[in-house]
Each structure stands twice: as C-alpha cells, then as structure tokens.
Specification:
Helix content: 25-40%
Protein name: ABM domain-containing protein
Organism: Methylobacterium frigidaeris
Strand content: 25-35%
Mean pLDDT: 87
CATH topology of the largest domain: Alpha-Beta Plaits
CATH class of the largest domain: Alpha Beta
Low-confidence stretches: 1-7
Order of helices and strands: EHEEHHEEHEEHHE
Pfam families: ABM (PF03992)
C-alpha cells in the first residue's frame, strides 16, 4: 500500500476498484469497516464515496483526531483484516487497495439526508452494530452515492452524524420510506434516545 503524504496527516483516502458483480458484497464490507473504524481510538469520521456515477471505483476516507491515532488504525490488525476481506472483491487490474492523503471534500451532484442521532450512554456498541445493518442495506439501494459517518465531538457535538447520499431525491426517498429501513428503525429504539434528519440538495461538503 502507498504511504500517505504528508507524514503527519490525520486523514487518508483508500482507493478501491471493484470487480464486476462485487457491488453487494462491497456494501456489506463498507458497513463492517464503518463499524470497526468507529470503535478505534481517535476516530472522527469515515466517508465512502464513488469516484463517479456508475463506475466501480470508490474512495474510503478515514479521519482521526491525531496523526498517531490514524497511524495506529492504519497499521493495526483490525484494518488489516478488513483489507484482506476486501481483496476478493477487487478488480484483477487493480488487485490492491491503495492509500493517499485525503482531500478536504468531494463535490458530486446528489441529494443528501443529514441524520443526527443521540445515543444513550453505554449503548454505543449496540448503536454501531445497528448502524452496520443500516449501512449494508442502504448501500444496495438504487442510486446510492456514499455515506459519511462522524462520531460525537464533545462538548460541541454530542450526537453521531450520518450523511446519506443518493443520486436523485426520488431514489433517496425510496430508501427512506422503504420497509427495510422502517424495520431497522424499529430495531434501533432500545439503543437510540433521539434522532432528527433534514434534506440537503448538496454534496457532503455542504
């Protein structure tokens, strides 16, 4: 894997090129990665972004509070296991994921739902496991254009922030109103105290 630059970066982007037919398995993989990254010390956010619509290339941006926390995550066994599980999904012409210094933002045409969730104290692990199920489900819906999951940043931000992107408002509404999502929301009730959402007609940087 390529080393990110500069050496004291607190974020990296992992470039992934999928083989044909690997989309559903990649949905599950990114959901699992989001969960375990969220458990890592110093985690700030993880962002899964398609390079362009209808292409097999994705960027996975991982942000941490410090360079040391990023390096511990990047070189640790949990992430190594995730990358090993990714290998069968990669395109033969690009058989390894590569790391680079992360850009500040992406600007794809899309519509975004911003969801703020306050999690009951002591139920964070249950919330992350539930969020993995949500991520795996929404990533399989037509029009899915990536997510950003950000941990609380106390004292300023006490909630988890999730940005869900779809190519069109209709495709986003299809996911938000789907029976699959409604069932998942009912499952979350024991672990979540309150949540709110709002619509942005803009990419993640907004």
């Amino acid at each position: 894997m390529n080393a990110p630059s500069p050496s004291r970066a607190t974020a990296i982007v992992t470039r992934v090129s999928l083989r044909p037919g690997a989309e559903d398995d990649f949905a599950g993989w990114q959901a699992a990665l989001t969960r375990v990254a969220g458990e890592a010390p110093g985690f700030v956010s993880i962002e899964v972004v398609p390079v362009a619509p209808q292409v097999p290339d994705w960027h996975v941006v991982q942000r941490f509070r410090t360079a040391a926390a990023l390096e511990a995550w990047r070189g640790g066994p949990v992430r190594a296991d995730c990358l090993a599980a990714l290998e069968p999904l990669l395109h033969p012409d690009h058989p390894a994921a590569t790391d680079e210094a992360a850009p500040d933002f992406y600007a794809l045409a899309c519509v975004t739902e911003v969801i703020a969730t306050r999690v009951e104290r002591g139920r964070e692990q249950a919330f992350r496991a539930w969020a993995e199920s949500v991520q795996g489900a929404q990533a399989r819906f037509p029009g899915y254009a990536g997510t950003l999951v950000q941990a609380p940043l106390p004292p300023q931000i006490a909630h988890w922030t999730t940005l869900v992107r779809f190519a069109t408002p209709a495709q986003l509404d299809a996911w938000l109103g789907s029976p699959e999502r409604q069932a998942l929301l009912r499952q979350a009730e024991p672990a979540v105290s309150t949540w709110t959402s709002r619509r942005l007609d803009a990419p993640f940087a907004g």
